Recover the amino acids of this structure.
Protein backbone atom coordinates (compact mmCIF):
# COMPACT_ATOMS: atom_id res chain seq x y z
CA UNK A 1 0.00 0.00 0.00
CA UNK A 2 1.44 3.43 -0.89
CA UNK A 3 2.35 5.66 2.01
CA UNK A 4 -0.06 8.51 2.81
CA UNK A 5 0.59 11.73 0.98
CA UNK A 6 2.12 14.25 3.41
CA UNK A 7 0.23 17.44 4.14
CA UNK A 8 1.81 20.49 2.50
CA UNK A 9 3.71 22.72 4.92
CA UNK A 10 1.50 25.67 5.94
CA UNK A 11 2.54 29.02 4.48
CA UNK A 12 3.50 31.68 7.01
CA UNK A 13 4.90 32.00 10.51
CA UNK A 14 3.28 31.74 13.93
CA UNK A 15 2.17 34.96 15.57
CA UNK A 16 2.69 35.79 19.24
CA UNK A 17 -0.81 34.46 19.79
CA UNK A 18 -1.91 37.27 22.11
CA UNK A 19 -5.68 37.52 22.20
CA UNK A 20 -8.41 38.79 24.48
CA UNK A 21 -12.17 38.56 24.47
CA UNK A 22 -13.83 41.36 22.49
CA UNK A 23 -10.49 42.53 21.11
CA UNK A 24 -11.77 42.57 17.52
CA UNK A 25 -15.28 43.87 18.17
CA UNK A 26 -14.79 47.06 16.12
CA UNK A 27 -13.60 45.16 13.08
CA UNK A 28 -16.37 42.57 13.48
CA UNK A 29 -19.09 45.22 13.64
CA UNK A 30 -17.74 46.94 10.55
CA UNK A 31 -17.67 43.64 8.67
CA UNK A 32 -21.24 42.85 9.72
CA UNK A 33 -22.45 46.28 8.62
CA UNK A 34 -20.50 46.57 5.36
CA UNK A 35 -20.29 42.94 4.19
CA UNK A 36 -23.42 41.52 5.77
CA UNK A 37 -25.48 41.85 2.60
CA UNK A 38 -22.94 39.81 0.63
CA UNK A 39 -22.97 37.12 3.33
CA UNK A 40 -26.77 37.02 3.38
CA UNK A 41 -26.93 36.74 -0.41
CA UNK A 42 -24.47 33.86 -0.61
CA UNK A 43 -25.80 30.34 -0.66
CA UNK A 44 -22.74 29.11 1.22
CA UNK A 45 -21.28 32.00 3.25
CA UNK A 46 -17.90 30.79 4.44
CA UNK A 47 -15.63 33.00 6.59
CA UNK A 48 -12.04 32.43 7.74
CA UNK A 49 -10.48 33.85 10.89
CA UNK A 50 -6.79 33.57 10.01
CA UNK A 51 -4.27 33.45 12.84
CA UNK A 52 -6.78 33.57 15.69
CA UNK A 53 -4.05 33.00 18.25
CA UNK A 54 -3.57 31.05 21.45
CA UNK A 55 -7.27 31.08 22.35
CA UNK A 56 -10.29 30.79 20.02
CA UNK A 57 -12.26 33.79 21.31
CA UNK A 58 -12.00 35.88 18.15
CA UNK A 59 -13.43 33.11 15.96
CA UNK A 60 -16.22 32.35 18.46
CA UNK A 61 -17.19 36.03 18.61
CA UNK A 62 -16.93 36.50 14.84
CA UNK A 63 -19.45 33.69 14.31
CA UNK A 64 -21.92 35.23 16.76
CA UNK A 65 -21.66 38.72 15.30
CA UNK A 66 -21.94 37.62 11.68
CA UNK A 67 -24.79 35.20 12.33
CA UNK A 68 -26.74 38.11 13.79
CA UNK A 69 -26.87 39.60 10.26
CA UNK A 70 -26.35 36.47 8.11
CA UNK A 71 -27.62 33.36 9.98
CA UNK A 72 -26.12 30.81 7.56
CA UNK A 73 -22.55 32.05 8.03
CA UNK A 74 -19.91 29.44 8.85
CA UNK A 75 -16.57 30.39 10.39
CA UNK A 76 -13.31 28.44 10.18
CA UNK A 77 -10.44 29.41 12.44
CA UNK A 78 -7.10 28.72 10.73
CA UNK A 79 -3.89 28.58 12.78
CA UNK A 80 -0.35 27.65 11.79
CA UNK A 81 0.49 26.37 15.29
CA UNK A 82 -0.95 22.84 15.69
CA UNK A 83 -1.10 23.15 19.48
CA UNK A 84 -3.42 26.15 19.15
CA UNK A 85 -5.71 24.17 16.85
CA UNK A 86 -5.82 21.30 19.35
CA UNK A 87 -6.67 23.71 22.17
CA UNK A 88 -9.52 25.21 20.11
CA UNK A 89 -11.20 21.93 19.11
CA UNK A 90 -13.40 21.74 22.24
CA UNK A 91 -15.02 24.99 21.12
CA UNK A 92 -16.19 23.61 17.79
CA UNK A 93 -19.93 23.67 17.21
CA UNK A 94 -22.25 23.71 14.17
CA UNK A 95 -20.94 26.49 11.95
CA UNK A 96 -17.56 26.79 13.71
CA UNK A 97 -14.45 24.65 13.20
CA UNK A 98 -10.69 24.97 13.49
CA UNK A 99 -8.00 23.87 11.02
CA UNK A 100 -4.22 23.75 10.88
CA UNK A 101 -2.90 25.96 8.08
CA UNK A 102 -1.65 29.34 6.95
CA UNK A 103 -1.92 31.73 4.03
CA UNK A 104 -2.89 28.87 1.72
CA UNK A 105 -6.31 28.74 3.53
CA UNK A 106 -6.75 24.95 3.44
CA UNK A 107 -10.54 24.65 3.41
CA UNK A 108 -11.80 21.15 2.50
CA UNK A 109 -12.66 20.52 -1.11
CA UNK A 110 -10.95 23.69 -2.26
CA UNK A 111 -13.82 25.75 -0.84
CA UNK A 112 -13.29 29.49 -1.19
CA UNK A 113 -14.33 31.83 1.60
CA UNK A 114 -16.42 34.94 1.07
CA UNK A 115 -14.45 36.68 3.79
CA UNK A 116 -10.98 36.31 5.27
CA UNK A 117 -10.15 38.26 8.39
CA UNK A 118 -6.43 38.53 9.24
CA UNK A 119 -6.09 40.65 12.37
CA UNK A 120 -2.67 41.25 13.95
CA UNK A 121 -1.11 38.69 11.60
CA UNK A 122 1.03 40.65 9.12
CA UNK A 123 2.37 43.10 11.69
CA UNK A 124 5.35 40.80 12.37
CA UNK A 125 6.31 40.46 8.68
CA UNK A 126 8.70 42.71 6.74
CA UNK A 127 6.87 45.41 4.81
CA UNK A 128 8.06 44.08 1.46
CA UNK A 129 6.35 40.73 2.12
CA UNK A 130 2.89 42.26 2.58
CA UNK A 131 1.91 42.54 -1.13
CA UNK A 132 2.63 38.84 -1.71
CA UNK A 133 0.61 37.87 1.38
CA UNK A 134 -2.28 40.05 0.24
CA UNK A 135 -2.14 38.52 -3.25
CA UNK A 136 -2.09 34.96 -1.91
CA UNK A 137 -5.04 35.59 0.39
CA UNK A 138 -7.21 37.49 -2.10
CA UNK A 139 -6.58 34.73 -4.67
CA UNK A 140 -8.33 32.34 -2.28
CA UNK A 141 -11.50 34.45 -2.06
CA UNK A 142 -14.80 33.44 -3.59
CA UNK A 143 -16.30 35.80 -6.19
CA UNK A 144 -17.42 38.94 -4.39
CA UNK A 145 -15.16 38.09 -1.46
CA UNK A 146 -13.30 40.43 0.86
CA UNK A 147 -10.04 40.31 2.80
CA UNK A 148 -9.90 42.47 5.94
CA UNK A 149 -6.37 42.87 7.28
CA UNK A 150 -5.27 45.14 10.10
CA UNK A 151 -3.93 45.75 13.56
CA UNK A 152 -5.37 46.76 16.92
CA UNK A 153 -4.23 47.34 20.48
CA UNK A 154 -4.46 44.63 23.10
CA UNK A 155 -8.02 45.41 24.22
CA UNK A 156 -9.44 46.68 20.94
CA UNK A 157 -9.73 50.39 21.68
CA UNK A 158 -7.79 51.46 18.56
CA UNK A 159 -7.80 49.65 15.28
CA UNK A 160 -6.84 50.29 11.64
CA UNK A 161 -7.59 47.88 8.81
CA UNK A 162 -7.44 47.59 5.04
CA UNK A 163 -10.27 46.02 3.03
CA UNK A 164 -9.16 44.25 -0.16
CA UNK A 165 -10.92 42.56 -3.06
CA UNK A 166 -9.32 40.29 -5.65
CA UNK A 167 -8.16 43.40 -7.51
CA UNK A 168 -6.28 44.71 -4.47
CA UNK A 169 -6.78 47.17 -1.60
CA UNK A 170 -9.93 49.29 -1.61
CA UNK A 171 -10.23 51.20 1.65
CA UNK A 172 -8.54 51.94 4.96
CA UNK A 173 -10.67 52.24 8.11
CA UNK A 174 -9.62 53.95 11.33
CA UNK A 175 -11.68 53.00 14.40
CA UNK A 176 -11.33 54.17 17.97
CA UNK A 177 -12.96 54.31 21.35
CA UNK A 178 -13.52 58.05 21.32
CA UNK A 179 -13.57 58.54 25.06
CA UNK A 180 -9.97 59.00 26.05
CA UNK A 181 -8.74 59.72 22.50
CA UNK A 182 -6.32 62.63 22.70
CA UNK A 183 -6.05 63.13 18.94
CA UNK A 184 -6.70 61.05 15.80
CA UNK A 185 -2.99 60.51 15.12
CA UNK A 186 -2.91 58.35 18.26
CA UNK A 187 -4.11 55.66 15.83
CA UNK A 188 -0.80 55.83 13.96
CA UNK A 189 0.76 53.16 16.18
CA UNK A 190 -1.95 50.73 14.98
CA UNK A 191 -1.45 51.27 11.27
CA UNK A 192 -1.18 47.95 9.39
CA UNK A 193 2.22 46.84 8.19
CA UNK A 194 1.70 48.25 4.70
CA UNK A 195 1.41 51.77 6.14
CA UNK A 196 3.06 51.98 9.55
CA UNK A 197 6.57 52.67 8.23
CA UNK A 198 5.12 55.26 5.82
CA UNK A 199 3.93 57.61 8.53
CA UNK A 200 6.70 60.08 7.71
CA UNK A 201 6.66 63.49 6.00
CA UNK A 202 6.08 63.21 2.27
CA UNK A 203 3.85 60.13 2.53
CA UNK A 204 0.05 60.39 2.10
CA UNK A 205 -0.83 58.62 5.34
CA UNK A 206 1.28 61.12 7.28
CA UNK A 207 -0.48 64.03 5.58
CA UNK A 208 -3.86 62.45 6.29
CA UNK A 209 -3.19 62.05 10.01
CA UNK A 210 -1.77 65.59 10.16
CA UNK A 211 -4.93 66.99 8.57
CA UNK A 212 -7.11 64.85 10.81
CA UNK A 213 -5.37 66.26 13.88
CA UNK A 214 -5.94 69.79 12.56
CA UNK A 215 -9.63 69.08 11.97
CA UNK A 216 -9.87 67.59 15.48
CA UNK A 217 -8.29 70.73 16.96
CA UNK A 218 -10.63 72.90 14.92
CA UNK A 219 -13.60 70.97 16.34
CA UNK A 220 -12.53 71.55 19.95
CA UNK A 221 -15.55 73.78 20.55
CA UNK A 222 -17.73 70.66 20.22
CA UNK A 223 -15.89 68.79 22.99
CA UNK A 224 -18.38 69.88 25.70
CA UNK A 225 -21.07 68.08 23.66
CA UNK A 226 -19.07 64.86 23.84
CA UNK A 227 -16.26 63.15 21.98
CA UNK A 228 -18.68 61.76 19.38
CA UNK A 229 -19.86 65.21 18.30
CA UNK A 230 -16.27 66.42 18.10
CA UNK A 231 -15.34 63.37 15.98
CA UNK A 232 -18.29 63.86 13.61
CA UNK A 233 -17.43 67.51 13.13
CA UNK A 234 -13.77 66.74 12.51
CA UNK A 235 -14.56 64.01 9.96
CA UNK A 236 -16.89 66.33 8.05
CA UNK A 237 -14.11 68.93 7.85
CA UNK A 238 -11.61 66.27 6.80
CA UNK A 239 -13.94 65.12 4.01
CA UNK A 240 -13.50 68.47 2.25
CA UNK A 241 -9.96 67.44 1.27
CA UNK A 242 -9.87 63.64 1.53
CA UNK A 243 -12.02 60.91 -0.09
CA UNK A 244 -13.76 59.95 3.13
CA UNK A 245 -16.66 57.52 2.81
CA UNK A 246 -18.89 59.43 5.20
CA UNK A 247 -21.51 56.95 6.34
CA UNK A 248 -23.03 58.71 9.39
CA UNK A 249 -23.86 55.39 11.05
CA UNK A 250 -20.24 54.25 10.91
CA UNK A 251 -18.88 57.66 11.83
CA UNK A 252 -20.97 57.61 15.01
CA UNK A 253 -19.22 54.38 15.95
CA UNK A 254 -15.88 56.18 15.97
CA UNK A 255 -14.89 55.13 12.46
CA UNK A 256 -13.65 56.87 9.36
CA UNK A 257 -13.02 55.04 6.08
CA UNK A 258 -10.81 56.44 3.32
CA UNK A 259 -10.17 55.15 -0.18
CA UNK A 260 -6.88 53.27 -0.37
CA UNK A 261 -5.59 55.22 -3.34
CA UNK A 262 -5.48 58.38 -1.22
CA UNK A 263 -3.22 56.78 1.40
CA UNK A 264 -1.22 54.31 -0.69
CA UNK A 265 2.54 54.55 -0.15
CA UNK A 266 4.42 56.54 -2.74
CA UNK A 267 6.34 54.53 -5.28
CA UNK A 268 4.30 51.36 -4.71
Amino acid sequence: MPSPRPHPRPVGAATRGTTHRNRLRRMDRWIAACHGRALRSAGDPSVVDLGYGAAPWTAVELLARLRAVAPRTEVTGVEIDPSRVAAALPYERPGLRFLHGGFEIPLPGGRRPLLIRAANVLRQYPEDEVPAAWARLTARLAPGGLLVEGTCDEIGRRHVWVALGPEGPRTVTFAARLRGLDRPSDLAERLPKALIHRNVPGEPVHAFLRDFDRAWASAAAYAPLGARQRWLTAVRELAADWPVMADPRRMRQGEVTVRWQALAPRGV
Q: What stands out?
A: The mean pLDDT is 93. Residues 25-258 form a domain with the Rossmann fold fold (CATH 3.40.50.150).
